[in-house]
Amino acid sequence: MPETKTSLPSVDLQDRDLALLRGLFECRIMTAAHIAAIYFEGKGEYTKKRLQKLKAAGFVGERKRRVNEPSILFLTRKAFTLLTREGHLSGLPLLGANSFENRAKVSDFTLQHELEIMDVKAAFHSALAGNKQFSILEFSTWPLLYQFEVSRNGNKADAPMKPDGYVRIHEREAGSKGFVHDCFLELDRSKEVQDVLAEKAASYLDYYTSGGFAIRNGKTVADKKDFPFRVLIVLKTAERRNNTAARLVQTNPPILTLAWLTTLADVTADPLGAIWIQPKAYRDVTAGTPFDAERTLPAGVYRRQPEREAFIESKIKKLRLLE
Fold first, then answer.
1. Which of 106, 135, 155 is the last residue of a domain?
2. Would you report the helix, strand and coil content of the chain in percent, each value rounded to 5?
3. Which of 60, 61, 117, 197 is in the most buried spot, having the most CB atoms within 10 Å?
4. Are 261 and 244 in contact (CB under 8 A)?
5. What are the angstrom distances between the C-alpha of 36 and each of 47, 79, 129?
6. What is the mean pLDDT of residues 102-129?
7. Is the per-residue pLDDT at 247 higher than 60?
8. Among 62, 22, 11, 19, which residue's Cα sits nearest to residue 39?
9. Is 258 in the same domain as 276?
């Protein structure tokens, strides 16, 4: 008997569906909770029903998972073909079908890291939903879109810097076009040594001082002061956050206000709250104490100091990102 082909159910794609599919193309993976926060105003039940239709139509796929793990969703080749054909991927890198499928294969090694990045993105969208003063213009998590090269002592770095994320937040102001807050996101993998984190922060400082970010925005090196940005560094624990703050104080030159540090738990709970610390504040609070940030230990020496973490929490002034 000849084979019979089964057709997938059709779905009338709405604008939010297309935005979601484009987002899956860029981010590679999301959970239903991420999708609800970013695209459906936190409406969990509505999101669930919409995803069921998109999966039934063959536009969204689901990775195999263990019991009690959230569903991890990805864009299918069918959806990629549709988005490409109808021009919904304009402004994003052009990929062939094979390149798309290779990129969509997130390894188990990087899976948790990418899910945590999406946790941060979803938290920002939830915090700013319905806000009359601030709104997200862009929140990209595709490093290729915002990677940059830096020069050290006249020589280019061996590899480009690839941010974990790039965020643009618009602040409304009556009588003007308002302001844009530019932020790069770096999410600590916890196994990175402090020197690696310091090197990344130094690269961002070079990107600003060299005028690289101004040039990227269509201006010149002379305009660099008109294009400030912040580097949001998210650490796994308060101890890691404090270690990084101390290390950034010790860099040459010190990185005092460019970097804003917090923990993953704090940023996913309330990214707009008073959760961020600057290395400058850490330096000032610890000056003249046993935890002085400008005192360095011999190479390879590290000891845990729970009393330091308690001291910092009680003394340091934490900042709000959009005060």
1. 106
2. 45, 15, 40
3. 60
4. yes
5. 6, 19, 12
6. 94
7. yes
8. 19
9. yes
Other C-beta atoms closer than 10 Å to the C-beta of 265 total: 13
Same-domain check for residues 296 and 198: yes
Same domain, 95 and 167: no
Q: Report whether pLDDT(6) > 80.
A: no
CATH number, domain with residue 27:
1.10.10.10
Residue with tokens 């005192």: 295
- 80 lies in the same domain as 138: no
Averaged pLDDT, 292-313: 80
pTM of the model: 0.92
Structural domain of 182: 107-323
* 29-53 tens-digit pLDDT: 999 999 999 999 999 999 999 999 9
CA–CA dist 256, 282 (Å, integer): 9
Cα–Cα nearest to 73, from 81, 64, 82: 64
Q: C-alpha distances in angstroms, 114 versus 6, 57, 142?
A: 35, 26, 10
Q: Does residue 4 lie in a domain region?
A: no
Separation CA 82–CA 11 (nearest Å): 13
In a domain, 127, yes or no: yes
**Number of structural domains in the chain:** 2
Last residue of a domain, one of 106, 128, 159: 106
- pLDDT category at 214 given cuts 50, 70, 90 is very high
200 three-state secondary structure: helix
* 29 φψ region: left (φ > 0), alpha (ψ -120 to 50), beta (else): beta
Residue with tokens 């917090």: 262
Instruction: Give the number of other CB atoms < 10 A from CB of residue 65.
Output: 10
Identify whether residues 117 and 240 lie together within a single domain: yes
Residues 6+ apart with CB under 8 A from 180: 137, 168, 169, 170, 171
